[in-house]
Amino acid sequence: QMQLVQSGAEVKKPGASVKVSCKASGYTFSSFDINWVRQATGQGLEWVGWMNPHSGSADYAKNFQGRVSMTRNTSISTAYMELRNLRSEDTGVYYCARGFGLGNGEDWFDPWGQGTLVTVSS
Amino acid sequence: SYELTQPPSVSVSPGQTARITCSGDRLGDKYSSWYQQKPGQSPALVIYEDDKRPSGIPERFSGSNSGSTATLTISGTQAMDEADYYCQAWDSSTAVFGGGTKLTVL
Predict the structure, then answer these.
(1) pLDDT bracket for residue A104 (50, 70, 90)
(2) CB contact, 8 Å: B92 with chain A?
(3) C-beta of residue A15 within 8 angstroms of C-beta of residue A81
(4) CA closest to B45 among chain A residues
(5) What is chain A's mean pLDDT, rounded?
(6) B48 near A CB under 8 A
(7) Average pLDDT over residues A33-55
């Protein structure tokens, strides 16, 4: 079955960077977008951006532009999200999710990874 | 920026019908989707393209979208349906989520 497995929890200091991985299995990795969604503790869902594993192209939410990069290694079916210049407000769980849809880039998200907790604290 | 508004909480008795609304400007002109999140778990898609159910989602889950409101309806609500529910739509190439609704089955 389709599955996304993410890397483990991270603790970072303000100003540092974090790179989270998301390994896909059970489907053709390069055929579906990978989206990233953040959830602060006890809060709602916030879209971070998406990446096309086939082309490598990516698009990011305005709140994250300039600080986030999404990349991939197709040989191991793994997507990465790097967030730079971390601040305390970036603390939360980061999810990757496979995007599928009508081919216009407006995906629905299924399945989701198990989430990676990123804690930013001095 | 585009906003989707959901009620913070909805309560329903077991076996009854729960309706969770999601409001946004001309939301009916866009496709809506719904995600269920149980405590300590990742979100899971329950409705996409307004009214379609992914495989494995029970028939008691249904969706509609018209005008400025999308609605998730759970018929014959069960205790296992207690969760947070988030609506989602796309606007200007950005995925937007509603603030979430906590469904309590009591």
Answers:
(1) confident
(2) no
(3) no
(4) A110
(5) 96
(6) yes
(7) 96
CB atoms within 10 A of CB B75: 14
Residue type, B30: K
CA atoms of B63 and A17, how far apart (whole Å) = 40
Which residues sit opposite B96 in a β-bridge? B89
Quote the pLDDT of residue A103: 79
Q: What are phi and psi of B29, to 5 degrees?
A: -85, -5
Task: Please count the other Cβ atoms lying within 10 Å of the Cβ belonging to residue A60.
Answer: 20
Q: Which residue of A has its CA nearest to B42?
A: A114
Bridge partners (DSSP) of residue A68 are A83
Which residues of chain A lie closer than 8 angstroms to B98, CB-CB? Answer: 44
Cβ neighbours for B38, distance < 8 A, ≥ 6 positions apart: B82, B83, B84
**Are A119 and A13 contacting, i.e. CB atoms less than 8 angstroms apart?**
no
User: Which class for A115: exposed (0-12), middle (13-18), buried (19 or more C-beta within 10 A)?
Assistant: buried
Q: Position of tokens 């907790």?
A: A117
